[in-house]
Specification:
The protein contains 7 helices and no strands. The chain is mainly alpha-helical. The protein has one domain (3-203). Helix 1 packs parallel to helix 5 and helix 5 (140-164) runs antiparallel to helix 7. The N and C termini lie close together (5 Å).
Length: 205
């Protein structure tokens, strides 16, 4: 890894760590509100549920594909994909508008979660655009770590959606009764693990 790219990784890790603290604080406050007060006042939106599932699948599919490209016996360079980022950011914005339309205490708090998710995607877009293409197997864990961080930020939105979804349609009663502390602890562990992988990536080669 060149000195300039190594410095960029270090800077990126620092920025990720800052975002991680923000998203965990926001997630805890949001989940506390959802699990204690909001579930009975928000109507389940099947279209928003489908959009959230599609967004989650799209993000995970792309990052897994990038990681596998680099882990292949003959690695294929990962190049910047503007269409992917444009579509993801558009879908995040569309989903946010739909889920916040109800204007309840819980949905109003969704804004901070969505802003954190959008900002994380934008940070990595800029990083990949500036420092790509990525060609080495040593870079693969970096894409896995970014995937983990994005999933940590999607998790509170999914918990909210499951908490208002009718049980006969696959809703989770556990989402209504689990404490915000338990859910946030799991998110913190995943985020710390992802940041550790990013830190290792800065030292590779």
């Amino acid at each position: 890894m060149t000195t300039s790219k190594k410095s960029a990784f270090v800077y990126h890790v620092g920025k990720i760590s800052h975002l991680r603290q923000r998203l965990l604080r926001g997630s805890f406050a949001f989940l506390s509100c959802v699990l204690m007060t909001a579930c009975a006042t928000v109507t389940y939106d099947a279209q928003a549920d489908r959009q959230l599932t599609a967004l989650t699948q799209e993000i995970n599919f792309q990052f897994i594909t990038w990681e596998n490209q680099l882990n292949a016996p003959r690695p294929t360079p990962v190049t910047y994909n503007a269409k992917f980022y444009d579509k993801v950011e558009t879908n995040i914005t569309t989903l946010e508008i739909r889920m916040e339309a109800a204007q309840t205490t819980a949905t109003n708090k969704l804004a901070g979660i969505f802003q954190s998710l959008y900002k994380q995607v934008e940070v990595f877009r800029k990083f990949q655009l500036k420092h790509g293409p990525f060609k080495r197997k040593a870079d693969a864990p970096f894409f896995h770590a970014e995937q983990d961080l994005l999933n940590v930020q999607i998790a509170p939105i999914l918990t909210f959606e499951l908490s208002i979804k009718p049980k006969q349609m696959g809703g989770s009663s556990a989402a209504k009764t689990n404490s915000a502390a338990v859910i946030t602890t799991k998110g913190r562990a995943a985020a710390i693990h992802a940041t550790t992988i990013l830190s290792r990536a800065t030292l590779a080669n």
